[in-house]
Write a structure and sequence with these properties.
Helices cover 42% and strands 16% of the residues. By secondary structure, the protein is of the alpha/beta class.
């Protein structure tokens, strides 16, 4: 049975406050147990309650941009957060398969307005009078797709679309965009806020003051226009109301009442001010993004990890930025998540956080390179997807030397299909001149980073996984593009990639087979010639960080075109949208964990011998 939003309309103000407090307790509890997006969800509890009081989530279409702030919405539409983000449990973002209250699948920023406008247009065509609401964070408006969608709304007079701006002055960390400064100007308007508070108090006294309020509100709007410059939305020709307090039920109800009246003549923008992390003091004080997304048991003392690829990268960049005065680091909104804070503090003139604007980050890097500088782009694999055209047109075609650190490559776990970093090798393979590499330990990371430091006029990508580096291995023979673990000069070869690949080879080498760890993930024919692949009867590739269309297809194409007579077994992740769950659970579910892969390889290599002996 679907929960009814009508029940929320019967609550008193005190009951609403108690319910909001209970929901916050649930969110804190589940984030502590399972990890997740803590601060964004704490900040929108009252806003979510008011949305569900004023709109019907089953009849109307309520879209949350990104979807990382839907925990209260999930609770209020009848879902338990107990198994949130766990394998087989409640997804971290919106998912229509889980509830009819969820209207689209998301996970990336800045898509809600475009999707909502498309829905609203279709509904207008079929004479559907329901509302469409897009809840968008202020930092998501910095993205081009949001601004492109807003540009269309100004001329529309037929769709019942309400765009709610959740303005908390933050992205993951501080909001660095123009929109952030625009919202700060509005937030700092004391005159405007005092008047808004006064009118909301008048409105809350009795229902009969509704008409009086609407008249007074229009007077106040005219006064605001005399005192303040037009907002960016009004300059675009959009109807704009606000700002309203996002933690005051009276103001929120007032905002949505006004929006319902105005939207009869086309889209309206509602500006709501919230505090990220509201109700949990450490998160409210956070300006770095520490509490944006948290791991389980986040309040326990933890030593800073030094044995991970992000730490290696930070130390390398600090040294390189000192040595190379042309080095310039660009990151789209993930400075904290990529462990770049010290780099940005130390070299403020040669670093920039462009906000949630991945396309701009990549194209801007092209301009920096064309002026003779050395741009390093630090970007999550899942967000690099948004910049495919820019890599193609502005980097590769311009023959610009750019170094990309591709963060969160491979499975990332609980954030699910929108964030799994398993597709980058596949799509970069389609772009001319792209070179893609992946280290497996500290030494291979430093060798790749130093050796590839702007020596060629091609885009270079170094993939960094969340898996721990595998430093506990035996001696290797270092070659260009690969490392040799064992060379038995036999007829069986096992190739592997990344830290898990080296862990696998440490087990496989006991079988007296040749073992190579690939660093170059899109190896040229000349490199593959050096591997003498055609001399092997059996070749295995273990790649638990990518789909078949990447390194696996590169090897397969080479073997086929060169008339290979032997067998080839590629073990890769599926070409699919991999669900959420811990990385360990996902590897096991997909049969790509090291122990399972070892058994597959052992059986495959030995079955041929058994067949031949039987014959």
């Amino acid at each position: 049975m679907k929960p009814s939003p009508k029940a929320l309309r019967t609550l008193t103000k005190e009951q609403e406050k108690v319910l909001a407090s209970d929901i916050r307790s649930d969110i804190l509890s589940v984030a502590y147990q399972n990890g997740g997006h803590l601060s964004p969800n704490l900040g929108v509890v009252e806003l979510t309650l008011s949305l569900l009081k004023n709109f019907d989530p089953y009849k109307d279409d309520i879209l949350f941009d990104v979807g990382h702030q839907t925990y209260a919405y999930k609770i209020l539409t009848g879902r338990s957060l107990k198994d949130l983000r766990k394998f087989g449990g409640e997804p971290p973002f919106s998912d229509p398969d889980r509830s009819p209250a969820d209207k689209y699948r998301n996970g990336h920023a800045s898509t809600a307005i475009s999707v909502a406008y498309g829905m609203a247009l279709a509904k207008a065509l079929k004479k559907d009078g329901s509302y469409t609401i897009a809840l968008v964070g202020d930092s998501s408006l910095a993205s081009g797709i949001s601004m492109e969608a807003l540009g269309l709304l100004a001329t529309d007079r037929k769709t019942k679309l309400i765009v709610v701006i959740n303005d908390n002055g933050m992205s993951i960390g501080k909001d660095v965009s123009f929109m952030g400064r625009e919202f700060q100007r509005l937030r700092n308007s004391r005159f405007y806020f005092r008047t808004s508070k006064l009118l909301s108090r008048i409105m809350s006294k009795t229902r009969t003051t509704q008409k009086l309020f609407l008249w007074m509100r229009s007077v106040k709007d005219r006064l605001r226009q005399m005192v303040l410059k037009p907002t960016v939305f009004e300059s675009m020709g959009l109807k704009y109301i606000g700002p309203f307090s996002g933690h005051d039920f009276d103001e929120l109800d007032l905002a949505f009442s006004k929006a319902k009246s105005l939207v009869e003549n086309g889209p309206v923008v509602v500006h709501v001010i919230t505090k990220k992390g509201y109700g949990y003091p450490p998160a409210m004080k956070d300006e770095k993004g520490t509490f944006h997304g948290v791991n389980s048991h986040f309040d326990e003392e933890k030593e800073e990890g030094k044995d991970n690829f992000d730490y290696y990268k930070k130390e390398f960049l600090l040294r390189k930025m000192e040595e190379d005065h042309k080095a310039f680091v660009i990151c789209p909104a993930m400075v904290y998540g990529s462990d770049l804070e010290e780099v940005y503090r130390t070299y403020p003139e040669r670093t920039i956080d462009v906000g949630i604007a991945e396309e701009n980050a990549v194209t801007m890097a092209s301009g920096i390179a064309l002026q003779g500088y050395h741009p390093v782009i630090d970007i999550y694999s899942t967000f690099l997807q948004r910049s495919y055209d820019e890599v193609f047109e502005d980097i590769a075609r311009e023959k610009c030397p750019n170094l990309f650190y591709v963060e969160r490559s491979g499975l990332v776990g609980e954030d699910g299909p929108s964030h799994q970093g398993i597709y980058d090798v596949s799509f970069l393979r389609t772009i001319p001149d792209c070179q893609v590499y992946m280290p497996y330990d500290k030494d291979s990371f430093l060798r790749l980073s130093s050796g590839l430091w702007f020596k060629k006029n091609v885009p270079t990508f170094i993939r960094l996984t969340k898996d721990a580096p595998f430093n506990d291995h035996g001696p290797v023979e270092k070659e260009e593009g690969y490392d040799v673990v064992t060379k038995e000069k036999g007829k069986k070869l096992v190739l592997a990639i990344g830290p898990n690949g080296m862990a696998l080879l440490e087990k496989v080498k006991e079988m007296a087979v040749d073992c190579l760890l690939l660093l170059d993930l899109l190896p040229s024919d000349s490199l593959l010639d050096r591997l003498n692949l055609l001399s092997y009867e059996d070749i295995v590739l273990y790649d638990c960080y990518s789909t078949p269309e990447g390194t696996s297809d590169t090897l397969g194409r080479y073997l086929l075109s060169h008339g290979c007579k032997g067998r080839f077994l590629p073990l890769t992740l599926p070409k699919d949208f991999v669900v959420h769950g811990s990385v360990k659970d996902l590897y096991s579910h997909l049969g790509m964990d090291v122990p399972t892969a070892f058994l597959k390889i052992r059986d495959w290599l030995t079955n041929k011998d058994a067949t031949e002996k039987k014959e």
